[in-house]
Automatic annotation (TrEMBL):
Family: Belongs to the clavaminate synthase family.
Keywords tagged on the record: Dioxygenase, Iron, Metal-binding, Oxidoreductase
Organism superkingdom: Bacteria
MF (Gene Ontology): dioxygenase activity
Record-given protein name: TauD/TfdA family dioxygenase
């Protein structure tokens, strides 16, 4: 695993930013409140609620729907799209750094707005073994977890594709900002493999295409255990000129010296090409998780009720391709049990 982390990351702004008008934002508020009116007592996993979200998502501004579908079908070089002007509740304190995750109904407009956006891209899912399978998860700094390579930490969060250790990682993830950090320095980072592929030497690509890498399960899935590993896997798979990507520059190891060198080279190239945005309230970043890494620069939490607060939501393009993993509702099994005995050692 990479232990050195650069203290600062040079990033450029993302290329694709959609700015919603006040009128468009107001239309999303109305749609979200209508959903809240009908489903305020429901669990987010209930099908009646989820299908209603998909139906009402048809009333998102048509310009936004078109851009989302374009991103869904074609992606972009950054592997990320920012939407500015999604409505969020701004008067709710950030969850306490030593307390429980809040109930979704604390921020219903934020919840339904994000779920509608994700429903245009696919079907919203969660994972049974992470954060109780929640379909929308709260991302805020946690007391005592500052140095963890998790979204509850506040040191630099290394570039990664989400949940690459799972059999069925999400296809898209979104992060919506309810509140930024005090110093406005925490930048959400992203970079698509398309940006770096032309710069990767052919012999390095060949190594990255072999099953010579393993990723440790994130501790958010394992109740703190750090010794559960994925099976050996390749970083690059699929089409030669537009590959899929599975990588984690904290949790992944190369299983031999050549593989580790290839991983280190790839990390340098991503850092040279990365885009980033210090998200402000109402800004939502979507990451194309099959082809792009994301991460976050460091920041200082204060634990005063006004810390940085993002909310995260996943979707997959086709629910039928993951149905074999469904546990209850839209919470997928992680397969961690099968991996308990797989070990890895650093090259
Ligand atoms: O906090 C951020 O901006 C990114 C966190 C992250 O990587 C995640 O929640 O998956
Ligand atoms: Fe992440």
């Amino acid at each position: 695993m990479t232990t050195e982390t650069p203290s600062a990351v040079d990033y450029r702004p993302p290329q694709d930013i959609i700015e919603l008008t006040e009128h468009e934002t107001a239309a999303i508020v109305a749609a979200a409140l209508e959903l809240f009116g009908r489903h305020r007592h429901r669990h987010l996993h209930e099908e009646a609620l989820l299908y209603d979200v998909e139906t009402v998502a048809g009333r998102l501004p048509s310009r936004l729907q078109t851009e989302l579908r374009r991103f869904r079908d074609h992606g972009n070089p950054d592997g990320a799209l920012v939407i500015d002007g999604i409505p969020v509740e701004t008067n709710v304190p950030t969850p306490a750094g030593d307390g429980p995750d809040p109930h979704w109904s604390l921020v219903p407009v934020t919840t339904f707005a994000q779920m509608m956006v994700m429903s245009v891209l696919g079907s919203v899912i969660g994972y049974r073994d992470e954060k109780e399978g929640r379909l929308v998860q709260d991302v805020f700094p946690r007391v005592g977890q500052e140095r963890r390579q998790e979204n509850s930490g506040s040191v630099l969060l290394e570039l990664h594709t989400e949940d690459g250790f799972l059999d069925r990682p999400p296809h898209y993830l979104s992060l919506i900002c309810v509140r930024g950090d005090h110093d406005a320095v925490a930048a959400t980072l992203a970079c698509g493999i398309r940006r770096v592929l032309p710069s990767i030497p052919a012999d390095v690509v060949a190594v990255l295409r072999r099953d010579r890498f393993q990723i440790a399960f994130s501790t958010s899935f394992t109740g703190g255990r750090e010794d559960i590993w994925s099976r050996p896997l390749a970083v690059l798979t699929g089409p030669i000129d537009d590959p899929h990507l599975t990588v984690d520059f904290h949790g992944m190891v190369g299983l031999d010296g050549e593989a580790q060198n290839a991983l280190d080279r790839l990390r340098e190239l991503f850092l040279e090409n990365v885009v980033g945005a210090v998200l402000r309230p109402g800004q939502l970043m979507i990451v194309d998780n099959r082809v792009a890494v994301h991460g976050r620069t460091s920041f200082e939490p204060r634990y005063d009720g006004t810390d940085r607060w993002l909310r995260r939501c996943f979707s997959v393009s086709d629910l039928r391709t993951v149905r074999d993993q469904a546990d209850h509702g839209r919470a997928l099994r992680s397969g961690g049990e099968r991996h308990r005995r797989i070990t890895a050692s650093r090259a």
